[in-house]
Amino acid sequence: MAAQTGKVNYIELITNGIIKENTIFKLALSLCPSIAVTNNLKNGVLMGVAVLFVQVMVNITISLMRKIIHPRIRLPIFMLVISGWVTITDMSMAAAVPDVYKQMGLYIQLIVAFASILARAEMFASKNRIAPSMADGIGMGIGFLFALTVISFFRELIGKGSVWGMPIVHTKPLLIMILPAGGFFAVGILMAFFNWIDVKFFKKGASAHH
Amino acid sequence: MSSEFTKLFELIVSASLINNFVFTRFLGLCIFFGVSKKMETAVGMSITFTAVMMISASLSWLIFNYVMVPLDITFLKIIVFIGIVAGLVQASDTIMRKVAPGLYYKLGIYLALISTNCIILAVPLINAGEKYSFIQSLAFGLGSGLGFALALIIMASIREKLELAEVPAPFKGLPMAFVVTGLIALAFTGFSGLITL
């Protein structure tokens, strides 16, 4: 975290969240929505965008306030900031996309309990200037969006034979993938796949989990 | 009266089995995977969790219906509920340490974890959304707590055996836990349609 001194490598900050510390596949944090809302691509992408927005805005806000927050009460303040932005997202989505909101409103509200957002506020935004914090938020958010997109793409393709509601495959779909159980399978298999890539191509040895 | 009682019973069964938070609503997964490695921690977590759940469900119901509804500030429910949960966890942490140090030594660590659990926040939100009565909110909290306990204990007993199994290398650890959870979730879909509320 060399953000305080010298030049900041924004590209590295952004890719860090997408690849090296991908919230879902690598850190295994904030798993709840990755299964709950990903039975079709549209929901997955919208959820990812909502998280991206909250993460970036929280990082900016915390970074702006970092000099006036007393360290001993920082966690309650962080929670207040996060829940404020989540409320804004929640109300905007309820107004803008009511039909999608009906299915996933609860999960949007629960963004507030995401460990990943609080973790970035605590570990990064509270110690860095605005621009790097924003880059970090964008990276983390895009990493999350990417993971949700991949999961929901495969689940919709296999479970319904369609992509973004448009039918692609015309054979009988494997219904289990859009059921709750399929979500667990999809995440498990994708995680194993990313572990395999890690070991096969990057020779980093054991996986990041545990 | 008896129909009221039936309704409560249905609420508990539905919250714990049919709409089990872990297997059909996917909430509380971080903790679920975190503490289900050993039976002992799973049981400790289940007890603490159910107790905190009941208290937070009733407390947030009272605040929602007697403070927030009259003042017309229900749109602040996310902020208020998370404040209640965090405050409650902190308070019970302090009280337990003073009053029952033995119990605190055993269960204290789970208390800290609970504040990051999304179920504990989801239950007050659902209670408020569905406009449950006070007793119904309590029943829903109890059902959710029991459902989470059931999920944890099933998973812990499987994972203790899984430690000894030969799992393909990329699947070691979490990925395998996910696939196992998927299989349990598949079994739980058998409960759907048991009761129609």
Layout of strands and helices, then pairs:
The complex is a heterodimer of chains A (210) and B (197).
Chain A: H1 10-20, H2 32-36, H3 41-65, H4 74-96, H5 98-109, H6 115-125, H7 130-160, E1 162-163, E2 166-167, H8 180-202
Helix pairs in contact in A: 1-7, 3-4, 3-5, 3-6, 3-7, 4-5, 4-6, 7-8
Chain B: H1 2-18, H2 29-35, H3 39-71, H4 77-99, H5 101-114, H6 118-130, H7 134-162, H8 174-188
How would you describe this structure to a colleague?
Chain A has helices at residues 10-20, 32-36, 41-65, 74-96, 98-109, 115-125, 130-160, 180-202; strands at residues 162-163, 166-167. Chain A is mainly α. Chain A has one domain (10-201). A two-stranded antiparallel sheet of chain A has the order 1-2. In chain A, a hairpin with a 2-residue loop joins strand 1 (162-163) and strand 2 (166-167). Mean pLDDT of chain A is 82; it is low at 1-5 and 205-210. Chain B is 77% helix and 0% strand. Chain B is globular and about 60 Å long. The model of chain B has no long low-confidence stretch (mean pLDDT 85). Chain A binds chain B through residues 28-33, 35-36, 76, 79-80, 83-84, 86-87, 90-91, 106, 109-110, 112-113, 115, 176, 179-185, 187-189, 191-193, 195-196, 199, 207, 209-210, and chain B through 23-30, 33, 75-76, 78-79, 82-83, 86, 116-118, 121-122, 125-126, 129, 168-179, 181-183, 185-186, 188-189.
